[in-house]
Amino acid sequence: MSADESHDYDLMVIGSGPGGQKAAIAAAKLGKRVAIADRGHMMGGVCVNTGTIPSKTLREAVLYLSGFSQREMYGASYRVKSEITIDDLLARTHHVIGRETEIVRNQLLRNHVDILTGTARFTDPHTVLVEGAGRGDHNRVTAAHVVIATGTRPARPDTVAFDGERVVDSDQVLQLGRVPGSMVVVGAGVIGIEYASMFAALGTRVTVVEKREGMLGFCDPEVVESLKFHLRDSAVTFRFGEEVSSVEVNGRGTVTSLASGKKIPADMVMYSAGRQGMTEELGLDAAGVVADDRGRIQVDKQFRTSVEHIAAVGDVIGFPALASTSMDQGRLAAYHLFGEPVRELHELQPIGIYTIPEISFCGRTEAELTAAAVPYETGLARYRELARGAIVGDSYGMLKLLVSPDDHTLLGVHVFGTNATDLVHIGQAIMGCGGSVDYLVDTVLNYPTLSEAYKVAALDATNKIRALEAVERGDQV
Ligand SMILES: Cc1cc2nc3c(=O)[nH]c(=O)nc-3n(C[C@H](O)[C@H](O)[C@H](O)COP(=O)(O)OP(=O)(O)OC[C@H]3O[C@@H](n4cnc5c(N)ncnc54)[C@H](O)[C@@H]3O)c2cc1C
């Protein structure tokens, strides 16, 4: 038990998403008295209810029911179900959300974390008022430390009339009444392009409008090109360098007008125009904490805000705004607040983009290495060269390794295709341990697997490096 009995709790956590949950559990495991607040319908956060989990479950339902990933094997007309309804898709999503919510609640209760239902706001730096709709959902509690993990909500341009049916944001897309025949996606960020690819796989004619000249600029350009090729093949039209000037809605559908004069008719429009930090309702003034105009809170390396005993983690602190990183931020913030010795997060972190097909990478890109004048060689494996690629019917996937020609260390790994988001971790582990592709050349991997792509790419890179060395030595052929 904590020594500080002057407060109701040692730690009050606001928000039950991945950051809040892990902060609460880490503190509880240290023997601290912990409470966590969230709105009743949001247990598990954006992650479980409107973001990561529903979108990835929807993707799985789309892939299964549309038979999309089996068409190479069984032909372009292959479907598991000919008429896919929104209920077919959402049944799976609701099932998984229910399960995940239960897991989160159970983990918190098992660790003796008190769950306070309602919206929380500071009334002073150590006091939080939690008010909900239910009888008895009114709690004023004091805490020695506070973790803010309130996440974000979709940003909504004032000029757009969202109605939840014809014009929706990325939260509302999970409440659609039917699968649209055509759709405009405004914003080609990760969320926009993930949903664009899911609807395209369902047969929706999708137009993506993006004011930048391209998309996913932080990824390997070759991989992004491959994705664009695939999406175009699924009837996705890209309008890059274009801005939406208005969206009109009537009983028949929507017309999206672009500043360039183009008009795009579609059944519906989905806006994915960034996200806003959920700080308006927090009463931050009363705590002495400041948020910027995007609702984001600035923190130091230990996730402390400008107020020593108040930390902030997860999407509310901005980049990278991923469930994966939010969890670790929560855990680390709790340890730092209670002075528990802890190692920092490894700076090498993977990025996963669950488009259809999916993308994942870790480490540096070719553009970054070139800009930094770091020499590298590439090693490429195409899934179509792998027995497992043929078995699963993926002929387009690829894995690219970026390798130092000097000491063969792995500088980056870029994967496109089936299981990319899982496969990337092999490269990440090698890089994280300072390993080289020699390990991949000298090791035996299960066969037939997609992991074998690592072996093929490592051999490709080392053969190129060997060829260069032979020329430099002046070896006779
Ligand atoms: C469509 C979509 C897909 C995504 N896909 C992925 C993915 O594939 N992989 C990945 O790693 N990440 C993904 N993300 C991002 C991921 O969901 C977030 O990074 C993660 O949920 C952030 O966690 P968090 O701890 O900040 O809290 P959040 O999950 O954002 O939850 C915050 C919680 O705080 C609560 N809250 C807010 N204000 C208050 C208040 N005043 N009082 C009480 N409670 C409050 C909210 O109700 C909410 O439950 C996706 C996001 C979206 C929107």
TrEMBL record:
What molecular function does GO assign, one term?
NAD(P)+ transhydrogenase (Si-specific) activity
The answer to keyword Amino-acid biosynthesis applying to this record is: no
What Pfam families does the annotation carry? Pyr_redox_2, Pyr_redox_dim
Q: Where in the cell is it found?
A: Cytoplasm
Role summary: Conversion of NADPH, generated by peripheral catabolic pathways, to NADH, which can enter the respiratory chain for energy generation.
Q: Which residues form the FAD/NAD(P)-binding domain?
A: 9-330
Cofactor(s) for this UniProt protein: FAD
The record's keywords, sorted A to Z, are:
Cytoplasm, FAD, Flavoprotein, NAD, NADP, Oxidoreductase
Q: What EC designation does it have?
A: 1.6.1.1
- Put simply, this protein is called NAD(P)(+) transhydrogenase (Si-specific)
Q: Does the keyword Cytoplasm apply?
A: yes
Grouped into one coarse class, the protein's main location is cytoplasm
Q: Which family does it belong to?
A: Belongs to the class-I pyridine nucleotide-disulfide oxidoreductase family.
Its gene?
A: sthA
Q: Which InterPro entries match?
A: Class-I_Pyr_Nuc-Dis_Oxidored, FAD/NAD-bd_sf, FAD/NAD-binding_dom, FAD/NAD-linked_Rdtase_dimer_sf, Pyr_nuc-diS_OxRdtase, Pyr_nucl-diS_OxRdtase_dimer
Broadest EC class assigned to this enzyme: oxidoreductase
Q: Which NCBIfam families match?
A: PRK05249.1 (NF003585)
Q: Where is the Pyridine nucleotide-disulphide oxidoreductase dimerisation domain?
A: 350-457
